[in-house]
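Researcher: Here's a chain I'd like modeled. Treat it as a single chain, no partners, no ligands.
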Amino acid sequence: MNNMSTILVIAIYFFSIIYLTFVGARKAKQIEIEGGSFSEGFYVAGRKIGPVALAILVAAGACSTGTFIGGPGLSAANGIGFMMLFGGGQIPMTLFILGVVGKKINIVGRRTRSESYVDIFRYRYENYAPLIFVLVIAILVFLISSSTGEFVGGSRVLETVTGIPFVYSLIGFGALITVYTSLGGLKGVSIVGILQGFIMTAATLILVVGYMVFYGGMPEIMERVGKLSSDLLTPNVGGKVPLYQLFNLWCTYSIGIIGLPWAVQSALTYKDTRTLKLGIGIGIVFVMIWTVFLCGWAGAAGRLMTPDLVVSDYAIPNLALGTLPGILAGVVLAGVAGAGQSTIAALFILAASSIVVNVYTAFINKAASDREIKRLTILVCTLVGVTNIFLALTEPPTLQVFITFAAGGCAAALAPGLLFGLYWPRTNKYGAFAGVLSGLIFYALFSLVDLGIPFLMNAPLLSAAPLSFLLCYWVSKVTPKPKKETLQIFFGQMKSDA
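Model: Modeled as a single isolated chain. Structure tokens:
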């Protein structure tokens, strides 16, 4: 399985990431020199992110190894119709995130100088401690689930290419991401992310040409897939998957994306409305290419390459190595690895901001210096990285289970307080607390515990989200209204907008 030219390309890619990380670290330092704080440079990149970087931060942050490894694996295992029926819903994800909540979050973020996703909740809900603590817990639970899946995916790529055992591939992959995120912050991640986003797109296009030429086009691929099993040509896998389960997955990966804090947080970083609009369009193009050509079509081709597929996560690495010359295979697999790295970096920054900015400096030490915040941020990023390495050592059968759990959980627990808070003035801190807590409990319960009702376990988002939205609404209606000062910041005109 070893291929020296493939390994060389991936090594060059990793060294490029390390170099760009230090470039980003210097730029983040420059923000401090010009009068900004460490937090402003590290977490929101000085609020000067351009359209391409914005599109990649949002799209690549949400389209992770789930799109580049887990999704194609599902397509290989269950058929292209199964994957595309719900996977296609993620194509307009930058529109969902930036179009629905992005502009308002950016406006409010500048008014309040918010530096994290949780800051939006702090200012909207009057720094209500019980809400902030349960919110941080919910974020960490789903963040750890998602990043564990990302670590597994990236490590399996390295394992397939180099022949290095999974454990050592995992340690190397995890250490690299931990280092470059800790050093570079969001500015470093955005610079590295531009490289990763283009490599992810180039990887998709190279691979699609490779498998099309190798197999003779999609009609031939689909005909041969049908010969393996006619169930692979039906969206519900020959009736094995209930349609409500597919609808649950569609909601999770389409409108449910609004709940992903590691994608939504990027809305704090862009510099103007023009950047927002261009970022939405660029992001849609990127995600469409990744979803159709890689997540759907490549999965079908991957099944032909490995007819007796046991672990679906290996479908894309095996397809790249089986249909492309060594150098091109290296580019493709570097892009696949980059998909995981860009998401993990966003997850780490969210974890650090949630713990350091929203818990430590907000409730424990309000007078913390920039130097202390910087040290704690690096410490938190490191601890999260080490924790995820240990969790990923369990080597689960497929990473997509973790990513789906995280995406659905965020939609059920975090979306009610965010959406109501931005667009319904009557929402208060008690309602937001009820929404987050109930979403976390109900989604975890329905996903992890068999209550004897198939609908609950097969469609946990469809079961939990209505309850959390309802409780957020009802509790807000029967408890006191928010303060006028809060409503002015979120719903009124201010001089700072001029």
